[in-house]
């Protein structure tokens, strides 16, 4: 496989690659072998011109008149996103949302694994809940190191998120997915993505109202 210079891929393009990969993987499971940018645009709601430009940063991925080979695109995007490399994930905040995420445990990607969960509630610390031993946030740095954690998912409420994220950053973790909508302060070398469920729901409702005749995935 080609050795891609990932630093030259624009950030906007990089953010869309998981969207492409997710939808292409679904198409592959349905037996679709090739696709054109117009078809992928209808599915992802990303303009076909943008898709072609995104793909151009990665070399010659398709052929004029033929389109793109679905399985080849999956291989390319998987390599770029390192989705073939096993990554251990920790969840901090083991309330209802944390439990739901843990129980899902990335069933579509065997290389993403939730290895441990953390909380500050003394009522659940030390207990095994839905198959997960609940560790104290006081032990985060040690446990994260022992279990080789690379990514943290935070479901901690906004009022406590900064303190929790500080503990995570102090442990050396540089990749965080935060379900609290309020921004937190982090060093420049740390990557963080915010998932605001209210915003996501409003976006979904907007597309449901205004794109009734388009069968598509709502863009992320």
TrEMBL record:
NAD(+) binds at residues 93-98. Residues 19-58 bind DNA. GO terms for molecular function: DNA binding; DNA-binding transcription factor activity. GO terms for cellular component: cytoplasm. Residues 83-183 form the CoA-binding domain. It holds the Pfam family Put_DNA-bind_N. It is found in: Cytoplasm. One of its GO terms (biological process) is negative regulation of DNA-templated transcription. Keywords: Cytoplasm, DNA-binding, NAD, Repressor, Transcription, Transcription regulation. The keyword Transcription regulation applies. Modulates transcription in response to changes in cellular NADH/NAD(+) redox state. This is Redox-sensing transcriptional repressor Rex.
